[in-house]
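User: My collaborator and I are trying to settle a disagreement about how two of our proteins should look. Neither of us wants to argue from intuition anymore, so we agreed to look at predicted structures for both before our next call. Could you fold the first one, then the second, and keep them clearly separated?

Assistant: That sounds like a sensible way to settle it. I'll keep them separate. The first protein:
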Amino acid sequence: SGEVAARRREVKENRQVIEQLHERITRITADAERSYFQSIMKAIAEFPSVKKTLMPHSERVAFFAQRLAESMGLSESEARTVYRAGLLHDAGKLAIGPEILAKPDKLSGPEQELVRQHPLFAVQILGDSPFFTSELSAVLHHHERMDGKGYPRGLTREQMSWQARMMGIADIFEALTAKDRPYKEGMK
């Protein structure tokens, strides 16, 4: 009876300690994730071509993807995932020279093939972060198509994550509604 009451108090205190530790670890992990993401975005933004072309495009894609997720009733976490994926989806274009990305003429076959590798380059740039597994899938597969004729893997709808499908929709919508680009006149 006295022993049982002492044991119950001890268990209750241990639970409180465990809950406090769990809350603290969760906060620290969230802070680390936020800091890591901000570091990636800062590193990407240091490239001169990014501020002018890639970042505005990526910000619009992120905005459209997040709005699409919200309109579908997805959770705040899921909407944040596609938002961040939108910001990161073209990071691999940093590995492609501006002479190709800003080329006003049609790209040659090898140039097109290089550009088609930007999702693979993005995943290499972003690395093996434990924070962005869902975003990496969307980044890697945002140019896949439902019929399997996309790139880089030729996945079909069933093989694509919902994040990748959503990212593809947002990217296409942004491209269709964007202002003029070196290789394409904007919609009037």
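The second protein, kept apart from the first:
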Amino acid sequence: QTAIQKQVDAELAKAETAASIAAAAQTSVPAPATSKAYRSIPTADRSDPTAYAIAFTTELLDTNYASQTRAALLAWAEHEEAPNTLPGVPASVAGKALVLSLADPNLPGGTPSPTPSPAQWSTDAESGVVQRVSDVTAEVDPDWTQIVSEGWQPRDPLMTIETVTGNVTISTKGHTAAPESFTLTLTLGSAAHLHGGYGAVAAGDWTVN
């Protein structure tokens, strides 16, 4: 191992606190499943990280809250997950990272999620909220590019971090609000254990302007 490999590995492992690991271990995730509302990402998009990030984000965010369910979304997310292979993450919780990043952003180490809480999802469904995204683009996160260029290598050769941006439009019973811009950070990795190609490791840092 190079000096930079040891240094970054140690820093990443230190960031995985005992509290976050314990919380993940005690939290269950749904069985992986697709549905008519949440289909598997097309094979053509699984070989390219940018294409996958755009396809995943679009399916994640395009939501008719009255006709789609949060449970189906999280089951689909587990179908699309790639294990978190960063240093300090035990194999026992590696496959939970994506669903927990979406469903439980208040767990230790979590960041804002685009997925509403169960109560908010129910409220949006009753209000007839429909959410659509447009102009979705993605590019490799500059911080990720920097540490890789310095010589650090992830355990998973497909792992990368994409910054996804676009516009989100909310409609409620015939009234459509002006589009707002959004940003989402999406960590990707190898989903070879499920269907090959890219999968999503975690989503977070959700912001809407």
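Some points you might bring to the call about the second protein. The radius of gyration is 17 Å. The mean pLDDT is 95.
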